[in-house]
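Reopening this ticket.

The earlier resolution said the output was attached, but the attachment link was broken on my side. Pasting everything inline this time so it's all in one place.
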Amino acid sequence: MRAAATTNGPVRIRLLPLPASLLTLFALLLALFATATPARAADTADTTTSADTQAAYLADRLRENPVYVSDQLPREIPKSTTPDFAKLAERTGVPTYVLVLPGQAAPGHQLLGTVHDRLGKDGLYVLLDETQVADATAYGVDVPADAAATATTYELPYDAGPLLHFERFVDVLTQGEAKAAARAEAAREKYADGSPPDMYITQSDRDSQSFLTGLAMTGTPLLILLLVPYVRRWWRRRPGAARPTPKQERTRLVWLLPAIALATAVAIGVTAPLVFDETRSSASPTPRAVDLNARLDRVTKGLAEDPVYADPESPRVLDARQLTQLHARIEKFRASADGGPVFVAVVPQLYEDESGADEEAFAAALHDKLGKDGVYIVADPLFGMIDVFNYGLRLDSLDLLYDLPESIAYGDAKADRADDHLLGERLDALMTYLDKAERTADPQTPGEPFTSAPDPIAEDDLRPLYYGDFWQGLIIGALAAVALYGVVAAVLGLVRKWLVRRKPDPTPTANLARVSPAAPSESYLRSTAKTELRAMTRDFGTGETADTRARNRYDATMLLAADGLDGLRPGPLVAVIVLARATRSALAHEDVTRCCGVNPLHGPAKSSRHVKVSTEDSRRKMLPLCDRCLNDTHPNDYPSLLLTLPSPDGGPQRIPYYEDDLLAAVPDGFTKLGRTVRESVHVP
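Inline output:
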């Protein structure tokens, strides 16, 4: 029994500690598990919060007001337009929740669904970006949201602006399902290959309008002064044209043209502003000071409470672990020798924001509002860029501004593919870079920021029409008018040559004695007769202004040409030439009664003289002479200048013109020649 007791005793002594050890181990495992589980739960909760933070923030804003306009787009759609969106939202007839956010920060339908879940209220949810209705979804209400969004997208141009897009969206929505669907389909078919024309012009377009106005104000009047007289003169002198305009009418035109040119310039100056009546280049309402400062005030307030400010309107890019680590690194740098405060603004940089996407201007504004020196880091959660600005610390400001490693400032290919652009890792690398950066002897600042961002108040105001390129247009207009005049003159000159070849003009009277041959061929006489007859017919017209002398000469000429010129002999052809020229001189009221007796083709006679007309004898004839034969001809040269005609029998011998029965009357004047013509055709 003792042995058993002894045996059992030790056993009990050894077994009793074993359960205690197991219990202790089990308790430790439970403790570890309990410690580990909350950590994993916390990570899971943090992940959920990270994905849902943006929607939660926006849902909270919609609880306060069913219309939320971001303060990050003051240049395009200021926050002060919230009441305008609210008035339009009331017209939908259903609970409507409107979000106006930067396009890159709003992932469309996914965001609306998450916001709806967070808000917990049914209704129409509309998301707009800086240009248009980005998405619209109806939850628990029956409205044609998709059709209205489609119609609005196709019907309005890109530059119509979000406010007008929302107004059109509401108009289509309230028409009902059938009409909205039909309108969406019609708009889609109409603009399937394009879009409606822009509603606004750019500053470049205004410069073009100014240039065009200046061009027209000088070019058009100058063209009137240069081209009208030239073209008119060319038209009067073209082959086959009517006789010249009376001198009184030409004088009146000299005074009238400048008046017309001046009136044209004034008319262009008055009507151009009515035609080019645009005053703005965008649908954007003019932002107020409160709009331009809203985001800066929000970020400044956040940085005053926490050195890291992550924009709640944008997708979250820093999780809790990264934020904790970043805070620790910032505190370490602040407490280090020659270190200092670090302020991190994880905020989008957009062309529509108050700084015009200028990170340096944004950081300078934050520094001014916060009133604290330190390193200001601007990290863009949408595009992933990081910029660093030093205010008052012993760091090389230019090195931070321009020589930051690209892996930190822009990231690598892996960062480009990541949704969060690996901003957490890159910010951590930046803090390491700051820790290792050489310190300067004195504190530095980047100085006044150089910004190219336009004035947000006046950036959409178009320049005056009479400004800038208008003055260049005035100069170019004058030069262009002269150049165009030269081109027109050259073209009309070529046209005139072509017309002259088809219908040649009569030789000017002053040139007749110099160019008229003494022994013309029959073809020359026939061609010249046709030209002179055409010119006479053109100048005579209906004969309303012709006097008796002109009518008699005209009738005699037409008697000879009654059956055409092709069958006439050389003598009658010369008579047609002489009488046609005499008729034109009478129509021009010239006191000409005879033509040159040496060569009737020489034109009008000035005086009479006895001249030797043959080299075979010394006989002389009293003949009327033209200016050349009277003053510039030697007495012995008259026989060589005497007009001779081909022999009637076709022989080689030519005969003096006055031996022709019809032309024998030429030296006696046009009246005697006309009478001889009438007698030859038996007309009294």
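Reporter confirms the inline version is readable. The two ends are 190 Å apart (CA to CA). The longest strand covers residues 133-139.
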